[in-house]
Amino acid sequence: MSARFSPARFLAILVKEFIQMRRDRLTFAMMVGIPIMQLVLFGFAINSDPKRLPTAVLAADQSVFARTIVAAMKNSGYFEIGRAVMDEAELGRLLAEGEVQFAVTIPAGFARDLQRGARPVLLVEADATDPAATSNAIAALMQVARTALDPELDGPLAHLKAGADPVDLRIHRRYNPEGITAYNVVPGLMGTILTMTMVIMTSLAVTRERERGTMENLLAMPVRPFEVMLGKIVPFILVGYVQVVIIVLAARVLFQVPIVGSLGLLSLVMILFIAANLAVGFTFSTVAKNQLQAMQMSFFFFLPSMLLSGFMFPFRGMPGWAQAIGEVLPLTHFLRIVRGILLKGNGWAEILPEIGPLLAFLVVVTVIALKRYRQTLD
Amino acid sequence: MTAPAAADSGPAIDVRGLVKRFGAKTVVDGFSIRVGHGRIHGFLGPNGSGKTTTIRMLCGLLTPDAGEGTCLGLDIRSQSAAIKRQVGYMTQKFSFWEDLSIAENLDFVARMYGLSDRKRRVADALERLGLGNRRRQLAGELSGGWKQRLALAACILHDPKLLLLDEPTAGVDPKARREFWDEIHALARDGLTVLVSTHYMDEAERCHAIAYLAYGRLMTEGTVDEVVARSGLHTWTIAGPDLGPLERELAGRPEVEMVAAFGARLHVSGSDGAALAAALAPLRGQPGLTVAEAEPTLEDVFIHLMNRSTDNFA
């Protein structure tokens, strides 16, 4: 044996590595699949300048001026004007549930005040939990307020074009008036961290049994699949809660994120979200042959969760297909719940629409996991 | 260990025509066996002959593709859950939790089987196997012999009626193997039925009966003497100095089916006794060579069976 570098030995290692790489189909697929997924998601799905944001209008004034302003907002491309709203309570509810991003209130006497040059108030409330989603739209709104009415301001009203804006645009950045990104990101992290650790830990926990050969022993004992699944999952629910406590403390102490809503409600809903992720991990473990594959599959789930849930990029900026995928993912709904509870002070009524999809996801994945979990070794 | 109940009067294992395929490969092909209560049945055969697969079918870990039968009077297809409760299965590879201590492993098993007096049973098992002072040691830190003791203790913790042991003594030193087999015999005396697969001939000889599998089929079955007698094999031993050239020469002869060197002796075997005797006759007079007819050993018989089955199934 010579101590010098031997190209032949190096080649032998190289050949062996390639053979092994080719044998591990899943790893190979991941090496190709993950870049493709990233290309598609970053290239097509992600848009940090979301347009056509859902907007509700409460118009107490039906004048041509009011209509012009609404039309100009629509034309800016940033606002999608939905149905007209009749009272303030409904407007508030739409914002709280996250059904609309903006709520526009045109007060009674808008036209009269405008014609008098009294600069009527145009109130726009924005759901600013995610400052990135609203900032461009708000910039566009200022332009609208300044120039939209110009065509209408002729004849005796022409003098209003000069001087200050004809309307007094008041923008309320609700839930996050200072537009602090941390308010949005830190609660969101709760969901992201839970997704990552829960899926990875469960998928590894079961795969490890198979890799070490202890699964055969477990299967030879009189234990039911559901008992194994539940027993494997519950410890990680507790781990999940420990993580949540750490994040909530950090949010409060380090980042001064306001905690408006009920932490009790949050921890209750959390069970559902944690269980959904654990069921995903358990399902992966029934497919993966070894721990490496389990890790890769977890990553394959984690990547779209992070990118398509609205954690990193505004959900409303994504095209329809990406939103459809996002709607399936538990993280999407959990983010809305956690931001809703912590920043908006939402209660049961407001988060209910997000519970349904989470529950459906949990049930479907649990059924798949139990079906896939083999009680025999066939 | 309780005495066999009246309901156990039938055979402990009674299966017919078991077939198991993995993809296109038939691993077990029409396997039938009956094992009486309190018997130690050896399971022999070359690697890949379907021993492990058969054992797994018996304890409900695998579903047979064809065939039927009972294990402890319970149907192996429909009552595998009930079978699992009364069977102890020791896997080929150590399959207890290496990051749990000995006591924790046993405690887990006791809970799995819902044993009522768990603490006492675990303590008894530790005591019986001499693991008492190692109870806190992690299973992963144990040597091969101790791991095997732990596995056996765990497998019999729930007082099974049938013990399935898949090559339990692979890689274990002779003394530990001897002790292991003493324990197996003690258990069998108490009424436990044992099916044990092995590659060791001395272990096969300690079984009440043996079954030989090759390529998923049962080749022969019976007591050791029966199997040897039924093989129709004739063996001669040739002792003398410098047997190397002679071994090569004999191996080429058509009458000689196998030649194996054991130190300063050759074992020469063949199915046709007369032809073999004739072939060896010229050697008898040669100075320095001692040629004598001998009883074939179990190993001779098995290698003979193995060679024959290769011919049949190649």
TrEMBL record, chain A:
The keyword Membrane applies. Keywords: Cell membrane, Membrane, Transmembrane, Transmembrane helix, Transport. The chain crosses the membrane at residues 26-46, 185-207, 228-251, 263-285, 297-315, 351-370. It is found in: Cell membrane. It is a multi-pass membrane protein. It comes from the Bacteria. Belongs to the ABC-2 integral membrane protein family. Its main location: membrane. It holds the Pfam family ABC2_membrane_3. It comes from Azospirillum oleiclasticum. This is ABC transporter permease. Residues 147-376 form the ABC transmembrane type-2 domain.
From TrEMBL, chain B:
InterPro entries: AAA+_ATPase, ABC_transporter-like_ATP-bd, ABC_transporter-like_CS, P-loop_NTPase. The keyword ATP-binding applies. One of its GO terms (molecular function) is ATP binding. PROSITE patterns: ABC_TRANSPORTER_1, ABC_TRANSPORTER_2. CDD domains: ABC_DR_subfamily_A (cd03230). Signal peptide: none annotated. The keyword Metal-binding does not apply. It holds the Pfam family ABC_tran. Coiled coil: none annotated. Keywords: ATP-binding, Nucleotide-binding. Residues 13-240 form the ABC transporter domain. PANTHER family: ABC TRANSPORTER G FAMILY MEMBER 20 ISOFORM X1, ATP-BINDING CASSETTE, SUB-FAMILY H, MEMBER 1. This is ABC transporter ATP-binding protein. It comes from Azospirillum oleiclasticum.
